[in-house]
Every structure is written in structure tokens, then in C-alpha cells.
Amino acid sequence: MTTKDASSLSGRIIDFHVHLPLRDASGDVSRAVEVLLHEMDNAGVSTALVIAIEASPEILRRHVTPELLRSAVQPLAYDWKALTHPTLYSIMTDPEGVLRDQVKLYENHLAPSELVAEAVNASGGRLLGVASYCRLNSPEEYVERLERLRRDSLIVGVKVYPTLHFIKPDAPELEYVYDYLESEGLLLIVHTGCDPGIWELPALCTTANPRYLEPVARRHRDLTIIVAHMGSYSYLFPGIYFAEALRLARSHDNVYLDTSATTLHQVKIALSRVGVEKLLYGSDYPYFSGLHMSDIVEAYLEFRVPGWVKEAILHDNAARLLASLGLRLPSLGGAPG
Ligand SMILES: [Zn+2]
Fold it and tell me: Coil, strand or helix: which one is 236?
């Protein structure tokens, strides 16, 4: 059965959540595209949404002080798992140094939207771009930037990182951006759960609770919202907002869940609580150490659920969603145009 599933899905899989492997390519975009396409080919992935990551040291300094870090880590002082977490341990002794390291972490992991657009253009139609929200400019300026990006490249949506951007998804300043996405038929992807580094602190990741998307989903019924990581992303508290993500996707037609950085056990729970049609396969490549994209796809192909369920998660739901946005890609079997 596995062989049959593998052969029918191979080459058609749509990955709704990948990032540019810029570090593996020493910062070179065309090399990063090569590495990414090679991974996709080996995993039988035809199309991937490649997501930009933007964060700013200025925004970080504006929202986090060493004192804040010190008080945020206090409740974890007797948590053995937290004490083994290098960042959280360092906060107790050198919070200023932790903030400096966090800025260095940015330098290593950021992928500006312009680079993602460049990668999309160099991918021969295999990659669809997702820009990153950026809080440095006004919402109006950000939308102008998006328009420029879309003029030159296939950008299908925007990702908001409530952690990195220190913003609740229902913040009034995002309304202007949401209105634009909704009227242009673009996707909204929202990071949920914790994030590496200081965002493992529960006090700093509460903004990434999917519950803040509830009013957004209600106000913008024509906006397709994807809850990345199903509220679960966390090293210390895996599944931290899983229940909230399930509740949201279950009660709103326009809310989907992406499976990146979650376990198959959670996917199984989501299947029964929310329904197969709301799940989109995502790998979060290259952010899983020691694994290839093909290892993750393989785990899904061996997942003990009926073949049609795998088809839905790894291909059909994504293809339907992209088609509903008017995307007719040759790689998705649509008419040219
Ligand atoms: Zn990601």
C-alpha cells in the first residue's frame, strides 16, 4: 500500500511551508534555489510555498529589555527542561548577552521578501512566494512594497510572525494589510506557538496564540488564513496552543492548518477534530536538524491513514486552495494562462 501511495503522490506533493536554505548556500540565492529544488525533487514535491522571514533588531530592542527577560524567565526557575535550554539558562545570568545573541541569530536566519521573490523567479514555476510582514514601516508603506514585489514575482501571500514582530494578529495596525490581502485574493499565514531563542519564554510568545485570529477570521470572511504549526511550535511546551488552533479551524470556513513542525500524532487528532479538508502539508524545511525533506514526506506516506487522506493533505487541499485564489500553475495541472 505504501508503494502505491508513494507512486501516486510522488512528483505531485505541494509543500505549503518551506524557507530558503540560505545558510546552506552561503547566502547565495540561486544556489539556495538549487539546493531547495534538489530536496524537492528527491522528496517528490512539485510545488512549494517559500516563506520570507523578516525581523528587526530595532523592533526587538523596542520591545525587550534585559529586565523583561529576567522577569519572564522567573516562573521557569524550577523547570528542569527550561534550565537545559541554553538561551533560557543564559537569561538568568546574562540577559544583555542573550539580546546580543538574538540579533546575531537574526543575521543567520533572515530571508527578506525581496530575496524570496528573486528565488521564485529563478525556480521555473516550482516556488510560490510568501512575503514577510515587517513592522518598520507604516502599513500603507508595507502594502506599497507588496505591490512592487508582486509586479515582478509570484507572491501568493504574507506571513505575520507575532513572536518576531511583537504583534497580536488582531492588532488594529494589521487591518489595512488584511483588507489588502482579502481584496487581492492573497493568503495570510500566521506563525503560531513559540519560536527559537527568547520566544521559548511563554511570556513572550502569548501573541502567537491562534485565539487572536478569531476576530480576524470573523471580520474578513473572504481572507484565507493559514495557522502555521497548528499552534504547536515549541521546544519546551510542544502543543502549547494546539487546542486553540483546532477550535479556530473548526469554527471558521476560511481557516486552515499547516502541519509543519507538528507530530503525526497531532495531525491525527486534527483529522478527527477539524476534518481532513482543513489540513495542508508543510515541512518547515530547512528548519529540522539532521533530516531531509524526503524523510518527512516518507513519514507521511507511511502514516497509517487511508490513501485518500494522504492525497488530501499532501496535494488535493493545497491544489484546491491555490486554484480558488486564481492560481493556474502548469505544475498543478491547470490550464496555461
Ligand atoms: Zn517556518
Answer: coil
Instruction: Report the separation in Å between the CA atom of 191 and the middle of ligand 1, taken as the mean of its atom positions.
Output: 8
**Cell output for 153:** 514575482
Residue 90 CA, ligand 1 centroid: distance in Å: 25
pLDDT in tens, 64-89: 999 999 999 888 888 888 888 888 88
Mean pLDDT of 243-253: 97
250 vs 243: CA distance, rounded Å: 11
Q: How far is the CA of 174 from the centre of ligand 1 (A)?
A: 20
Q: Please tell me the distance between residue 229's alpha carbon and the centre of ligand 1 in angstroms.
A: 8
Longest C-alpha distance within the chain, in Å?
Answer: 60
Euclidean distance between CA atoms 38 and 48, whole angstroms: 12
Question: Cβ distance 23 to 15 under 8 Å?
Answer: no
Gap from CA of 132 to ligand 1 centroid (Å):
11
Residue located via cell numbers 507604516: 138
3-state secondary structure of 274: coil
- 17 CA to centre of ligand 1 in angstroms: 6
CATH superfamily of 2-55+110-332: Metal-dependent hydrolases (3.20.20.140)
Residue 7: pLDDT over 80: no
- Identity (one letter) of the amino acid at 144? E
Spatial contact of 161 and 196, defined as CB atoms under 8 Å apart: no
Residue-level pLDDT at 328: 60
